[in-house]
Amino acid sequence: MSKFFLYSTLLFLAFLLVVFVAACSNVSRNIQQDKKVKITKYVYRYGDRSVPPDYHRSYSIEVSADTTVFTVSTYDEVLLRKTYCQNKLAEIETTLNGMDIELKKEKKSACSGGYSETLLKYSQSEIVFNGYVYHCDGESGTLHVGNGDLSSVFKAVVPESIDSLINETRLI
After folding, report:
1. For residue 49, what are the contacts with CB-CB under 8 A and spacing of at least 6?
2. Which DSSP state fits 160?
3. Which neighbouring-strand residues pair with 123?
4. Taking the CA of residue 7 as centre, how many other CA atoms within 13 Å lie in the half-sphere pointing to its CB?
5. Are 145 and 133 a contacting pair, CB within 8 Å?
6. Residue 46: what pLDDT?
7. Is 75 left (phi over 0), alpha (psi -120 to 50) or beta?
8. Are strands 126-135 and 67-74 parallel, antiparallel or unpaired?
9. How many other C-beta atoms can be found within 10 angstroms of the C-beta atom of residue 114?
10. Are 147 and 106 in contact (CB under 8 A)?
11. Sheet holding 58-64, edge to edge
12. How far apart are the C-alpha atoms of 162 and 71, rounded to whole Å?
């Protein structure tokens, strides 16, 4: 092998190393930029256990800059929707930031009959975070909440009692 071939090979490998390092640094910068996306809406969904429609009550709480929307449903039939004109977005964001929330690799469950919780974060109309946890014989799903209780955080921004609102939808 000639010295020229050896030097040109080493030079080419050094060039590839520089390109690889530059590409990796751009990826990590893009990930950090994504974390700083301005959240314009949070949605919390509680999915009730599988029970007959007279008893099944799922609900969602959507919090944006100017409203909080509380919706109760039974198997996708909306029973109640209340809109509150209030700005609780910063309050939700501050609380959630202290809760060690992250996405994890999906863990599936063979269990059925549990309830679920879903957290969505929007930037404008784009979903930038979507995680769920299924509570049935342990926890499965993609959402990890290190400390705190998601349902309590979102229930706290609804000005009326969640239980009372859900009970309003039950047949007497």
Report:
1. 56, 113, 114, 115
2. S
3. 126
4. 3
5. yes
6. 96
7. left
8. unpaired
9. 18
10. no
11. 77-85, 67-74, 58-64, 41-47, 115-123, 126-135, 139-145, 101-107
12. 10
Which residue carries 């969904």 as its tokens?
A: 45
Measure the CA–CA gap between 74 and 172, rounded to whole angstroms: 16
Q: Residue 60 pairs with which residues in a beta bridge? A: 45, 71
Cα 118 off chain centre by: 6
pLDDT-derived band at 154 (thresholds 50, 70, 90) equals very high
Only one residue has tokens 């590839």, namely 16
Residues of the chain above pLDDT 90, percent: 59
Q: Shortest CA distance to 96 belongs to which of 160, 153, 158?
A: 153
User: At a CB cut-off of 8 Å and minimum separation 6, what does 23 contact?
Assistant: none
Cα(147)–Cα(119) distance, rounded to whole angstroms?
15
CA-CA-CA-CA torsion sign (76, 54, 120, 112): negative
CA angle 129, 84, 34 (to 5 degrees): 20
Its pTM stands at 0.77
Q: Is the dihedral of CA 16, 21, 22, 28 positive or negative?
A: positive
pLDDT digits (tens, 9 = 90+) for 90-110: 999 999 999 989 999 988 888
Q: Is 166 helix (H, G, I), strand (E, B) or coil?
A: helix
